[in-house]
Design a protein that fits this description.
Elements lengths: L11 E5 L4 H15 L5 H14 L3 E3 L2 E2 L2 E4 L6 E11 L9 E10 L4 H14 L4 H7 L3 H8 L9
Parallel strand pairs: 1-5, 3-6, 4-6
Antiparallel strand pairs: 2-3, 5-6
Helix pairs in contact: 1-2
Protein name: PTS IIA-like nitrogen regulatory protein PtsN
Length: 155
C-alpha cells in the first residue's frame, strides 16, 4: 500500500500556474473538486482561505500543506502540486513556495486529519525528497516518489 494512501495518480499536478497565494488556493480548490464531484469549489476555497488566515501553511523549504475539514467529504483526500514558479506564501522561513500538498478531511475526521498531516510532512522532509521532487520530469514520477516510504538514492 502506498505511504500516502489518500493520494491517487490523477491527483498530482506537475506544473500549477499561479502568481499569488490566493490564486494557488483557488487553483488547488478547483483541482480538488474535479476529483471530488460531491463538493463545490467555493466551500473548498473558503475553507483553505480561513485556515490560511490562522497562519500560513507554508512549513519551510519551499513547501506548503494547505488543509481543512469539509462537510460532505467521506474520506481523506490529497492533491500534490508543483508550481511552475515559486510563490510568496508567507512561509515560516520566509522562502517562496513551489511545492504544495493539499489535504482535505471529512468534518469529523478528528485525529485522522492530524495523523495525515504529520504523514505528509514526514514524507516531504525525508532526506533528498524535495530535490527529487523538483527534478521529477512528469506526474507519474512525482506520484512514484510520494507513494514510496523512502526517497530514491541519487545516482
Amino acid at each position: 500500500m502506498p505511504i500516502l494512501e489518500f493520494l491517487d495518480p490523477e491527483s498530482v499536478v506537475q506544473s500549477l500556474r499561479a502568481r499569488a497565494k490566493k490564486q494557488v488556493l483557488q487553483e488547488l480548490a478547483a483541482q480538488a473538486v474535479r476529483r471530488l464531484p460531491a463538493l463545490d469549489e467555493r466551500p473548498v476555497f473558503d475553507t483553505l482561505l480561513q485556515r490560511e488566515r490562522l497562519g500560513s501553511t507554508g512549513i519551510g523549504e519551499g513547501v506548503a500543506i494547505p488543509h481543512g475539514k469539509l462537510p460532505g467529504l467521506d474520506r481523506l483526500f490529497g492533491l500534490f502540486a508543483r508550481f511552475d514558479r515559486p510563490i510568496d506564501f508567507e512561509a515560516l522561513d520566509g522562502q517562496p513556495v513551489d511545492i504544495a500538498f493539499l489535504l482535505l478531511a471529512p468534518e469529523g475526521a478528528g485525529a485522522d486529519h492530524l495523523k495525515a498531516l504529520a504523514q505528509v510532512a514526514r514524507v516531504l522532509r525525508e532526506p533528498g525528497m524535495l530535490t527529487h521532487i523538483r527534478a521529477a520530469r512528469d506526474a507519474g514520477a512525482l506520484y512514484a516518489l510520494l507513494t514510496r516510504s523512502t526517497a530514491p538514492q541519487a545516482a
